[in-house]
Specification:
Radius of gyration: 22 Å
Largest sheet: 8 strands, antiparallel, barrel
Number of strands: 21
Order of helices and strands: HEEEEEEEEEEEEEHEEEEEEHEE
Helix content: 10-25%
Oligomer: single chain
Structural class: mainly beta
Length: about 260
């Protein structure tokens, strides 16, 4: 397509289903039955002896495969060749695995299919089963916090519910938001950083006032969205070093406050 980058062109070529036809590590032709499903949205399903539900990207001549493993985000790199003969993936030990396009329905996997629902007080959220959750019932004023965090603490999502009506000044809500952000960053390399207007209409498919703080060395990002409801405000903080699996986005889209979804999608 006109205007496509080389990586985009390769992604377009990968889109679809692929069937393994040979593998140099199995010279007696007893290679495993394996199918690959590359979706346009970046999802990758590997259906074979090693089932994998994750995401993919292109890095030069390598296929970057991102998958969840026991709550961690694992990245695999495999050199590949995509041409008129089909798709070849470089094996770790010997030669290549060979695939040809396959007709039929595209199989899907849901990254959040086995996630656990947490419902405490006014807030409910889903997260991977091996993530930690910290939260208490709302206090007497109706203020409540709930946070989820992956095992290596590289991803954290904090949800705060404030019992303020639509007429409560935004500047007061923002002051509270900045105070919470400052505490979140206190024990990180971004201690002392301030969140600034992000110049976007929200994050994670949630429309609201958006704020950002980030550093590249070491890589660390804090994204904040303030979502107002008729009788409350939701403050959503995502602090992470990387999120190639987009788990924080999915978790944020599954947040409910006062029984109302925060997602605008």
């Amino acid at each position: 397509m006109p205007g496509e980058s080389p990586a985009d062109s390769i992604r377009t070529g990968l889109h679809g289903a692929w069937l393994m036809t040979a593998d140099d590590e199995y010279p007696d032709h007893t290679f495993p039955d394996e199918k690959l499903y590359f979706h346009k949205d970046g999802q990758l399903l590997v259906d074979g002896p090693d089932f994998l539900c994750g995401r993919y990207d292109i890095t030069g001549d390598q296929l970057q495969i991102i998958a969840p493993l026991k709550g961690h985000e694992i990245v695999y790199l495999r050199k590949f060749i995509l041409d008129q003969n089909g798709l070849r993936l470089k094996n770790i030990r010997k030669g290549f695995a060979y695939y040809k396009p396959m007709k039929g329905m595209m199989e899907l996997c849901m990254l959040d299919e086995k996630w656990k629902l947490h419902a405490i007080g006014y807030i409910s959220i889903k997260s991977p089963r091996d993530w930690a959750i910290l939260g208490d019932p709302p206090n007497k004023s109706g203020i409540q916090e709930l946070r989820i965090m992956n095992p290596d603490a590289s991803k954290l999502l904090l949800v705060v519910r404030l019992p303020v009506d639509a007429g409560y000044p935004h500047q007061e809500v923002l002051k509270i938001t900045r105070d919470i952000a400052s505490k979140l960053l206190a024990d990180t390399p971004m201690a002392g950083f301030q969140i600034l207007p992000a110049g976007v209409a929200g994050y994670f498919g949630i429309t609201g006032a958006a704020y950002l703080a980030e550093t590249k060395n070491p890589p660390l990002t804090l994204k904040v969205v303030i979502k107002r409801f008729p009788s409350s405000a939701a403050l959503i903080f995502a602090l992470y070093s990387r999120d190639l699996l987009m788990e924080l986005k999915r978790a944020a889209q599954l947040i409910y406050i006062d029984g109302i979804p925060v997602s605008s999608e």
